[in-house]
Amino acid sequence: MTEVAEARTPAAGAHPRAGLRTSDRGAWFLVLPALIPILLLSVGPLLYGVLLAFTDAQSGRTAATRWIGVLNFRDLLHDTLFWESFRIGLVWAVGVTVPQFLLALGLALLLNQDLRLRGLARALTIVPWAMPEVVVGIMWRLVYNPDAGVLNETLRGLGLGDGRDWLSGLATALPAVIVVGVWAGLPQTTVALLAGLQNVPRELREAAAVDGAGAWRRFRTVTWPALRPVALAITALNLIWNLNSFALVYVLTGGGPGGKTRLPMLFAYEEAFRYGQFGYAAAMGCVLVAVVSVLLAVFLAGRLRGGADA
Amino acid sequence: MRTARTPRTRRAARAGQYTALLGYLLFLAFPLLWLLSTALKSPRELGSPHPTWIPRHPTLASVRQAFAEQPLAPAALNSLLVALATAAVTVLIATPMAYVMARHRTRAARAATGWVVVSQAFPFVLLIIPLFLVLKRLRLIDSLTGLVLVYVVWSLPFALWMLAGHVRAVPAELEEAAAVDGAGRLRTLASVTAPLLAPGIAATALFAFVTAWNEFFFALVLLKSPRRQTLPVVLTHFIGAEGVADLGPLAAAAFLATLPSLVFFALVQRRITSGLLTGAVKN
């Protein structure tokens, strides 16, 4: 909140740190090395991408690209396959984000305690994060493997049926990839919530404990209010990241069986780089941006509100 | 913590906590251990209808087969070059900008901070198609240089965010003291700020390295010829068109691809966690 407050004050220039702000030219000089690549390779292509959505651009014949207005978007509106992938994307994003958050919250509270194996757990927390997504996918393919997989072998051992081909089953494929998604993103969420827990004033919690508040009361009245801004931010970001995921599911199922795990990104990738429909795929990107913008607005609103509360 | 609880309920709560912790450790470690176990099994053991938990006769046959089947060594070299270049360039250009973002409340700095947040959210599809077209025009498709360019810009937002947090953690008073003593801006930065920022810069470089080492989507689209491809792309070649895979070599190659990141993290785990936390908290 302080940032916003300062922005509205004209006297922001008269800051005590005046010794360092000798000239804005110096500041620009320091910013340029990063700013130029950002403009050329990030902001520029994004705007170009939006423009492409209004053209019939195809790979191989980009020279003869024509402006076709909203035709791509009109086609998209009637593209049942796209809306199916969009629905799958939402199920996936929510299906990963919600259990992941609950698990991470429990874990963060757990790792915030003085436990013996805490150091090891914190160190291992980083493992799924350090792994290439491709390896995570391969690893879980091994776990889910119908013949040699550890999951089926365990189920057989427990007498729970003869096992199945989890990633190829029409009904099991999406839940199976969601479990992997939860696993892969758990550490980041846990670390973020652990960081958030450091905002919780220890004295306040102890005072509540002395006053006889139980664990749940303490969590609801002391911990949660302090944690809420971080929790909201990480949830919104996780939703956004999951909507944009690609590598994990690409390796696990390639979008199959029968498109049951074809996330929007996989759909757009196929459209662009298998069928060469650049303009149409760009239009899909725009639809996703629109959805993501809403989530981003929630995130920013939460950030500001969190600042005001503090 | 200090409620008037009976020792017995306290002990029960502790036991519950430790059970949860062990479950978590198992959940984290198990797939990785299974990967290792599969990688070390003999071909005969892999073919057995009832898979063993621990390989009876551990062998490196799968590792040898993996290297024979796919160009793993060149792919690892490509990945290493790309990741090192990405880390170096990212840190080099992000540090000055992060400094300005943290210390100056100018409109540009605020716009940069806003962009950092927003850019985290954009779908890659919208970025990759125009990037593909631009890089094609620059003749940088199927080139590691082109990939590094993309990775640098891709890891910049988070790098800036982390570094700005670290700059804010350096007391501005130190710089002011140096300024009062007559040191110029550059002198102050080089002799006062930079040494204190070194751990943050190291953590950021590591982050950029691991990001580039692990990345798949851009590499898949931008690199065409097999001898230019990076490790994650080559790994997917082990999975056949029909989704069938030679499990042993696949597991061996996948485990090897994870080793560098894991070693890096094991070495600087404490630092990166605290680096991430600093970046997160100070914002």
UniProtKB/TrEMBL annotation, chain A:
Its main location: membrane. Keywords: Cell membrane, Membrane, Transmembrane, Transmembrane helix, Transport. It is a multi-pass membrane protein. It comes from the Bacteria. It is found in: Cell membrane. The chain crosses the membrane at residues 27-51, 90-111, 123-143, 166-186, 226-252, 278-301. Residues 86-299 form the ABC transmembrane type-1 domain. Pfam families: BPD_transp_1 (PF00528). Belongs to the binding-protein-dependent transport system permease family. This is Transporter integral membrane protein. It comes from Streptomyces rubradiris (Streptomyces achromogenes subsp. rubradiris). The lineage of its organism: Bacteria, Bacillati, Actinomycetota, Actinomycetes, Kitasatosporales.
From TrEMBL, chain B:
This is Sugar ABC transporter permease. Keywords: Cell membrane, Membrane, Transmembrane, Transmembrane helix, Transport. Residues 76-268 form the ABC transmembrane type-1 domain. The keyword Transmembrane helix applies. The chain crosses the membrane at residues 21-40, 80-102, 114-135, 147-167, 188-213, 250-268. It comes from Streptomyces rubradiris (Streptomyces achromogenes subsp. rubradiris). Belongs to the binding-protein-dependent transport system permease family. It comes from the Bacteria. Its main location: membrane.
